[in-house]
Amino acid sequence: SSRVVQIQSQMSERAVELLGLPGDQPCLLLDVGCGSGLSGDYISDEGHYWIGMDISPAMLDVAVEREVEGDLLLADVGHGIPFRPGMFDGCISISAVQWLCNADKKSHSPPKRLYRFFSTLYTALARGARAVLQLYPENSEQLELITAQAMRAGFTGGMVVDYPNSAKAKKFFLCLFVGASGTLPKGLGTECADGEEIHQAKFTNERTRFRNAKGKSVKKSRDWILEKKERRRRQGKEVRADTKYTGRKRRPHF
């Protein structure tokens, strides 16, 4: 329907804006889950080139009929992004990445598929490029799973949430940086009535998390271990129960 088309193009516009592309030169973008090419139309209108990937032959047939300007590839991004290193100046994705959290086949492992997607995407993007992935997470565990795999693959960045206080207009954009980390853009509608900002959850490079006063990482400390176990539980892995012995040093053996 025209309403869906309108929402889709608004999100595409916002995703491209969050990419922060240089205004004076055409860029080559990857559109993950491009469907019938609606976001691609916006990219073309902005003077950029694009390649779209989608798992649905029917959707790509519609894109071909509509004579979109981008090149189209029928593929499952859970198998990885099959392009040469550093090829793209940016990547956008509208309402697609959350599907990687579903295991459609016995052999599908969502963490593995997400990691395969993010690690090959990281390679396919030029240094300093961004990926902006708009998604509809089912719950906070899904967000955690998706962002954890993106960080594991080497990305920095975080979630930009537009209109966080609105049930209808709230939108999640995972904004990822390759190489030098930029500052995370602000979400739209995040100012309260009195001009106070709502603080968004940001995650940075995992590795700087556990630091003691001297700046050394307190790896293997009890807190570090408990936090790691908690993280693995959230990812649905089997983890032993915490006890008073968790994180204790063993005596040296003679």
Automatic annotation (TrEMBL):
Question: What is one term from the GO cellular component aspect held by the record?
Answer: nucleolus
Is Phosphoprotein among this UniProt entry's keywords?
A: no
Query: Could you tell me which residue ranges the Methyltransferase type domain spans?
Result: 30-106
- Under what name is this protein listed? 18S rRNA (guanine-N(7))-methyltransferase
Q: What UniProt keywords apply to this chain's record, in alphabetical order?
A: Cytoplasm, Methyltransferase, Nucleus, S-adenosyl-L-methionine, Transferase
Question: What is annotated about its quaternary structure and interactions?
Answer: Heterodimer with TRMT112; this heterodimerization is necessary for the metabolic stability and activity of the catalytic subunit BUD23. Interacts with GRIP1.
Which PANTHER family does this one have? 18S RRNA (GUANINE-N(7))-METHYLTRANSFERASE-RELATED (PTHR12734:SF0), METHYLTRANSFERASE-RELATED (PTHR12734)
Give the record's GO biological process terms: rRNA (guanine-N7)-methylation
Subcellular location per UniProt equals:
Cytoplasm; Nucleus
Pfam family, any one: WBS_methylT
MF terms (GO), sorted A to Z? rRNA (guanine) methyltransferase activity
- Give all residue intervals belonging to the 18S rRNA (guanine(1575)-N(7))-methyltransferase Bud23 C-terminal domain: 176-251
What's the stated role of this polypeptide? S-adenosyl-L-methionine-dependent methyltransferase that specifically methylates the N(7) position of a guanine in 18S rRNA. Requires the methyltransferase adapter protein TRM112 for full rRNA methyltransferase activity. Involved in the pre-rRNA processing steps leading to small-subunit rRNA production independently of its RNA-modifying catalytic activity. Important for biogenesis end export of the 40S ribosomal subunit independent on its methyltransferase activity. Locus-specific steroid receptor coactivator.
Where is the sequence biased in composition, kind Basic and acidic residues?
A: 236-245
UniProt lineage: Eukaryota, Metazoa, Chordata, Craniata, Vertebrata
Region entry Disordered: which residue ranges? Answer: 221-254
What reaction gets catalysed by this protein? a guanosine in 18S rRNA + S-adenosyl-L-methionine = an N(7)-methylguanosine in 18S rRNA + S-adenosyl-L-homocysteine
